[in-house]
Input
Amino acid sequence: MHMTKSYILIVEDELLIALDMQEILELEGYKVVLVSSIEEAIGIIDTITIDLVLIDIHLNKDKNGLDLGRLLLHRDNIPYAYVTSYSDKTTLEKVQSTRPHGYIVKPFKPSDLIANVYLMIRNYKYHQIDVFRKDHEIDDENPFILKEVITYIDNNLHEKIELKDLLNISKWKSKHIVRMFIKYMKMSPTQYIIDKRLEKAKALLEETDIPNRQISYEIGFRSYTSFLKYFKKNTQMTPEEYRNKVKLKNLISSRKSSQNNSTEN
Output
């Protein structure tokens, strides 16, 4: 999984479980905030930008996790998921009305938590232009057009992508395409291209032994110096430091897994 600077809020009143989740996610590069009540969670959400909320349903408080789920459903500006040991039909029926973006059952494997968190955050970034998932008819053509532009970018990261290419696809003016990207993707077209290239670079650093300089050219950077600048700005480390950190993280996870297996046996 890709390291990121996304903020995750965990609402869990069992401290050991909360700390375990925090450790797993921080090893992946996420920033994690822990709270044990709905009131604390709302205070955090109203104070800083949160990218995902993980909620325990049965909190030992006056309000349970479903109350927070209903609030987040009403606000509709942050993805959220429940992390609970309950998977019975009664609980699922109650949960359904709050329309969470995920549901993770305890006990879970670290890999399951990591995969679910990654997908929920990534999918939510595209929810405003994911027109085929809307439950009502779309009378605005902008999301359809923007989706075409984004598909082109995603499929051509290795090529030189210029603004004129995007304008040819969208038939928009330059100011309008920038406005649409900021409205729906919360960033400019240029920033989107850079972020996608860096995301691909992280995957290659994690999963292959391809030299850093070769990676920079394979993902579309015409200058290795430019790649280094943007990568360090995004991760606060060089590509080599990033690769070494991932290797260390994998080694720690492997040792923990071996220790757990030895304990069980």
Observations:
- The domain at 132-245 is CATH 1.10.10.60 (Arc Repressor Mutant, subunit A).
